[in-house]
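Whiteboard transcription, Tuesday session. T.W. wrote the C-alpha coordinates on the left side:
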Protein backbone atom coordinates (compact mmCIF):
# COMPACT_ATOMS: atom_id res chain seq x y z
CA UNK A 1 0.00 0.00 0.00
CA UNK A 2 2.81 2.42 0.89
CA UNK A 3 5.93 3.12 -1.11
CA UNK A 4 7.09 6.58 0.03
CA UNK A 5 7.92 6.79 3.74
CA UNK A 6 8.67 10.11 5.42
CA UNK A 7 10.45 9.68 8.76
CA UNK A 8 10.89 12.36 11.38
CA UNK A 9 14.33 12.53 13.04
CA UNK A 10 14.06 13.88 16.59
CA UNK A 11 12.46 11.49 19.06
CA UNK A 12 11.48 9.18 16.22
CA UNK A 13 14.86 7.87 15.05
CA UNK A 14 17.26 9.75 17.30
CA UNK A 15 16.61 10.40 20.98
CA UNK A 16 16.66 14.19 21.02
CA UNK A 17 15.88 14.37 24.71
CA UNK A 18 19.06 12.53 25.60
CA UNK A 19 21.17 14.62 23.23
CA UNK A 20 19.58 17.84 24.46
CA UNK A 21 20.19 17.00 28.11
CA UNK A 22 23.88 16.31 27.59
CA UNK A 23 24.38 19.35 25.34
CA UNK A 24 22.62 21.89 27.57
CA UNK A 25 24.47 20.75 30.70
CA UNK A 26 27.81 20.98 28.92
CA UNK A 27 26.84 24.39 27.55
CA UNK A 28 25.94 25.88 30.92
CA UNK A 29 29.11 24.55 32.50
CA UNK A 30 31.25 26.03 29.73
CA UNK A 31 29.73 29.51 30.11
CA UNK A 32 29.98 29.40 33.90
CA UNK A 33 26.39 28.55 34.89
CA UNK A 34 25.65 25.72 37.31
CA UNK A 35 23.26 23.30 35.51
CA UNK A 36 20.91 22.60 38.43
CA UNK A 37 17.99 20.23 37.91
CA UNK A 38 15.56 23.13 38.39
CA UNK A 39 17.32 25.20 35.72
CA UNK A 40 17.46 22.31 33.24
CA UNK A 41 13.81 21.41 33.76
CA UNK A 42 12.69 25.00 33.22
CA UNK A 43 14.87 25.35 30.13
CA UNK A 44 13.18 22.32 28.57
CA UNK A 45 9.73 23.74 29.30
CA UNK A 46 10.57 27.10 27.77
CA UNK A 47 12.31 25.49 24.80
CA UNK A 48 9.30 23.28 24.01
CA UNK A 49 6.95 26.25 24.24
CA UNK A 50 9.16 28.31 21.91
CA UNK A 51 9.23 25.57 19.25
CA UNK A 52 5.46 25.26 19.47
CA UNK A 53 5.17 29.00 18.82
CA UNK A 54 7.46 28.57 15.83
CA UNK A 55 5.35 25.71 14.44
CA UNK A 56 2.27 27.94 14.72
CA UNK A 57 4.07 30.62 12.74
CA UNK A 58 4.14 33.09 15.63
CA UNK A 59 7.90 33.67 15.79
CA UNK A 60 10.87 33.09 13.44
CA UNK A 61 13.44 30.37 14.05
CA UNK A 62 16.17 32.83 15.00
CA UNK A 63 14.00 34.13 17.84
CA UNK A 64 13.47 30.60 19.14
CA UNK A 65 17.18 29.91 19.33
CA UNK A 66 18.15 32.90 21.46
CA UNK A 67 14.98 33.96 23.24
CA UNK A 68 14.66 30.61 25.03
CA UNK A 69 17.80 31.52 26.99
CA UNK A 70 16.78 35.15 27.48
CA UNK A 71 13.46 34.06 29.00
CA UNK A 72 15.16 31.47 31.19
CA UNK A 73 17.86 33.82 32.43
CA UNK A 74 15.33 36.57 33.19
CA UNK A 75 13.49 34.16 35.49
CA UNK A 76 16.66 33.04 37.28
CA UNK A 77 18.38 36.42 37.48
CA UNK A 78 21.27 35.35 35.24
CA UNK A 79 22.96 38.13 33.30
CA UNK A 80 24.16 36.69 30.02
CA UNK A 81 23.09 37.19 26.38
CA UNK A 82 21.20 34.25 24.89
CA UNK A 83 23.30 34.14 21.74
CA UNK A 84 26.39 33.28 23.75
CA UNK A 85 24.80 30.06 25.00
CA UNK A 86 23.29 29.22 21.62
CA UNK A 87 26.69 29.18 19.91
CA UNK A 88 28.08 26.74 22.48
CA UNK A 89 24.93 24.60 22.61
CA UNK A 90 24.84 24.21 18.84
CA UNK A 91 28.39 22.84 18.95
CA UNK A 92 27.59 20.22 21.57
CA UNK A 93 24.21 19.21 20.13
CA UNK A 94 25.84 18.21 16.86
CA UNK A 95 28.30 15.88 18.61
CA UNK A 96 27.35 12.27 19.19
CA UNK A 97 24.00 10.56 18.85
CA UNK A 98 21.52 8.45 20.76
CA UNK A 99 19.22 6.07 18.89
CA UNK A 100 15.60 5.50 19.77
CA UNK A 101 15.30 1.74 20.48
CA UNK A 102 14.75 -0.18 17.26
CA UNK A 103 15.63 2.70 14.92
CA UNK A 104 18.54 1.05 13.10
CA UNK A 105 16.71 -2.26 12.86
CA UNK A 106 13.71 -0.49 11.35
CA UNK A 107 15.83 1.34 8.77
CA UNK A 108 17.51 -1.92 7.77
CA UNK A 109 14.12 -3.60 7.44
CA UNK A 110 12.63 -0.80 5.32
CA UNK A 111 15.62 -0.47 3.01
CA UNK A 112 15.79 -4.22 2.57
CA UNK A 113 12.20 -4.28 1.30
CA UNK A 114 12.58 -1.53 -1.23
CA UNK A 115 10.71 1.31 0.44
CA UNK A 116 11.72 4.79 -0.67
CA UNK A 117 12.81 6.58 2.50
CA UNK A 118 12.88 10.32 3.09
CA UNK A 119 13.85 12.27 6.18
CA UNK A 120 11.39 15.04 7.12
CA UNK A 121 12.80 17.21 9.89
CA UNK A 122 12.34 20.63 11.40
CA UNK A 123 15.52 22.03 12.84
CA UNK A 124 18.80 23.78 12.14
CA UNK A 125 20.36 22.26 9.03
CA UNK A 126 23.98 22.27 10.23
CA UNK A 127 23.03 20.54 13.47
CA UNK A 128 20.74 17.96 11.90
CA UNK A 129 23.28 17.13 9.22
CA UNK A 130 25.99 16.72 11.84
CA UNK A 131 23.80 14.35 13.85
CA UNK A 132 22.90 12.33 10.76
CA UNK A 133 26.57 11.92 9.92
CA UNK A 134 27.46 11.05 13.51
CA UNK A 135 24.73 8.39 13.58
CA UNK A 136 25.72 7.07 10.14
CA UNK A 137 22.13 6.89 8.87
CA UNK A 138 22.30 9.33 5.95
CA UNK A 139 22.74 6.53 3.35
CA UNK A 140 19.35 5.07 4.24
CA UNK A 141 17.53 8.05 2.76
CA UNK A 142 16.87 8.86 -0.86
CA UNK A 143 16.58 12.53 0.10
CA UNK A 144 16.72 14.61 3.27
CA UNK A 145 14.34 17.53 3.79
CA UNK A 146 15.31 19.88 6.63
CA UNK A 147 13.01 22.83 7.14
CA UNK A 148 15.79 25.43 7.24
CA UNK A 149 16.68 24.57 3.64
CA UNK A 150 13.17 24.02 2.25
CA UNK A 151 11.90 27.52 2.99
CA UNK A 152 9.09 26.38 5.31
CA UNK A 153 8.54 23.89 8.11
CA UNK A 154 6.20 21.19 9.32
CA UNK A 155 3.19 21.43 9.64
CA UNK A 156 3.04 24.03 6.83
CA UNK A 157 1.69 22.47 3.65
CA UNK A 158 4.32 24.36 1.66
CA UNK A 159 7.01 22.26 3.34
CA UNK A 160 5.41 19.08 2.05
CA UNK A 161 4.72 20.56 -1.38
CA UNK A 162 8.46 21.22 -1.61
CA UNK A 163 9.25 17.63 -0.60
CA UNK A 164 6.75 16.12 -3.03
CA UNK A 165 8.01 18.22 -5.92
CA UNK A 166 11.54 16.88 -5.41
CA UNK A 167 10.61 13.18 -5.48
CA UNK A 168 10.47 11.45 -8.87
CA UNK A 169 7.28 9.54 -9.55
CA UNK A 170 5.73 10.61 -6.27
CA UNK A 171 2.27 9.26 -5.48
CA UNK A 172 0.46 10.92 -2.58
CA UNK A 173 -1.82 7.92 -2.03
CA UNK A 174 1.26 5.74 -1.48
CA UNK A 175 2.90 8.04 1.10
CA UNK A 176 3.05 7.66 4.88
CA UNK A 177 4.55 10.06 7.42
CA UNK A 178 5.92 8.61 10.67
CA UNK A 179 6.68 10.95 13.55
CA UNK A 180 6.29 11.64 17.26
CA UNK A 181 4.86 15.16 17.16
CA UNK A 182 1.13 15.77 16.92
CA UNK A 183 1.63 19.46 16.19
CA UNK A 184 4.20 19.13 13.40
CA UNK A 185 4.06 15.55 12.06
CA UNK A 186 0.43 14.52 12.39
CA UNK A 187 -0.99 17.96 11.68
CA UNK A 188 1.52 18.36 8.88
CA UNK A 189 0.58 15.07 7.25
CA UNK A 190 -3.08 16.00 7.42
CA UNK A 191 -2.36 19.41 5.90
CA UNK A 192 -0.46 17.69 3.09
CA UNK A 193 -3.16 15.10 2.43
CA UNK A 194 -1.08 12.01 3.23
CA UNK A 195 -1.53 9.24 5.78
CA UNK A 196 0.14 9.54 9.16
CA UNK A 197 1.54 7.19 11.79
CA UNK A 198 2.01 8.60 15.27
CA UNK A 199 4.98 7.22 17.20
CA UNK A 200 3.65 7.48 20.74
CA UNK A 201 5.78 5.51 23.22
CA UNK A 202 4.47 7.62 26.11
CA UNK A 203 0.86 6.58 25.63
CA UNK A 204 -0.48 10.10 25.20
CA UNK A 205 -4.00 10.80 23.94
CA UNK A 206 -4.49 12.64 20.65
CA UNK A 207 -7.25 15.25 20.45
CA UNK A 208 -10.14 14.52 18.05
CA UNK A 209 -8.86 16.95 15.41
CA UNK A 210 -5.42 15.31 15.31
CA UNK A 211 -6.25 11.63 15.14
CA UNK A 212 -3.55 9.80 13.13
CA UNK A 213 -4.32 7.01 10.69
CA UNK A 214 -2.10 4.69 12.72
CA UNK A 215 -0.48 4.75 16.15
CA UNK A 216 2.51 2.77 17.43
CA UNK A 217 4.24 2.63 20.80
CA UNK A 218 7.47 1.05 19.49
CA UNK A 219 9.18 1.32 16.13
CA UNK A 220 9.01 -2.38 15.36
CA UNK A 221 5.20 -2.09 15.30
CA UNK A 222 5.51 -0.21 12.02
CA UNK A 223 6.30 -3.49 10.25
CA UNK A 224 2.80 -4.74 11.06
CA UNK A 225 1.23 -1.67 9.48
CA UNK A 226 3.33 -1.91 6.33
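and on the right, the sequence the group agreed on:
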Amino acid sequence: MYKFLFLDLDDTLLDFGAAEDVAIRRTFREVGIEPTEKLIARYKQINAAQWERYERGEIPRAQVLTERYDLLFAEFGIHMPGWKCEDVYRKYLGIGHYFVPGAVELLDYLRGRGYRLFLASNGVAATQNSRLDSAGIRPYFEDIFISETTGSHKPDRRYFDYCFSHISGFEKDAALLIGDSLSSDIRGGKNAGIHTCWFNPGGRTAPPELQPDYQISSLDELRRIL
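Someone added at the bottom: The CA atoms of residues 155 and 184 lie 5 Å apart.
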